[in-house]
Amino acid sequence: MLCCMPGVAFVPALLVSWSSAAFIISYVIAVLAGHVEPLVPYISDTGTKPPESGIFGFMINITALLAVITMCIRYLLIEKQNESSHFVGSSCNMFSLCIGLMGCTGMGIVATFQELAVPSVHDIGALVAFGSGVVYITLQSIISYKSCPQWNTYFVCHVRMAISVISCVAFIPMIVFASRISMTKIDWTPGEK
C-alpha cells in the first residue's frame, strides 16, 4: 500500500526542520540586532523589523507550502487506506484537508503582513492559522483512532490526541490575551501598561 507514494516520508521531516529553522534563525537575528528581548518574545515580534522580517516571511511562506504538501500526502494516504478498510468517510477526510489548507493560508498571511505594518490583517491570519491548526490536528487525531488498529497503533493515537488537547488548551488563553491587547508594540518602557 505504501508503495503508491514512494519517497514522500521526508516531507513531514523537512517541514518540521524548515519551520524550526525559520523560527530559530529569525529569533537569533532579532536578538543580535537588539530588536527583541532574548527571553521568550512573541514569534511575530522576531519577524517584524528588517533584516529578520524578510527571512521570517520567506521561510514561513516555504513552511506553509511544505505544510500544504504534507497535508495533501496525508489526505491521499488516508484515501488509499480507506479503500480497503472504510474507516472514515471521504467527506470527513476532505473537510480535514480543507481546514488544514485554511491554516496554511493563515500562515502565509502572517508571514506576508508583518505585525507592526498591518496588525489587523496579521492578527486575522494568526487566528486563522492557529484556529485551523487546532481543528486540523483534532480531526486527524479522530481519524487516527478510527483507523486503529489496522493503520495506527493506539500509542500513536494517544500521542496525537494529547497534542490536540494541549493545542486546544493553549488556544484559549491566546484568544483571551490577544483580545485584551489594544495596541501592537514591541518596545516597551517601564511604567507602560
UniProtKB/TrEMBL annotation:
GO annotation, biological process: regulation of autophagy
Major localisation: membrane
Residue ranges crossing the lipid bilayer per the database entry: 7-34, 54-77, 97-118, 124-143, 155-178
Domain (CWH43-like N-terminal) ranges: 8-183
Keyword Acetylation attributed: no
Pfam families from the UniProt entry: Frag1 (PF10277)
Protein's membrane topology: Multi-pass membrane protein
Coiled coil feature spans: none
UniProt entry keywords in alphabetical sequence: Membrane, Transmembrane, Transmembrane helix
Single GO cellular component term: lysosome
Entry-linked InterPro entries: CWH43_N, DRAM/TMEM150_Autophagy_Mod
Localization annotation: Endomembrane system
UniProt family annotation: Belongs to the DRAM/TMEM150 family.
Protein name in the entry: DRAM1 protein
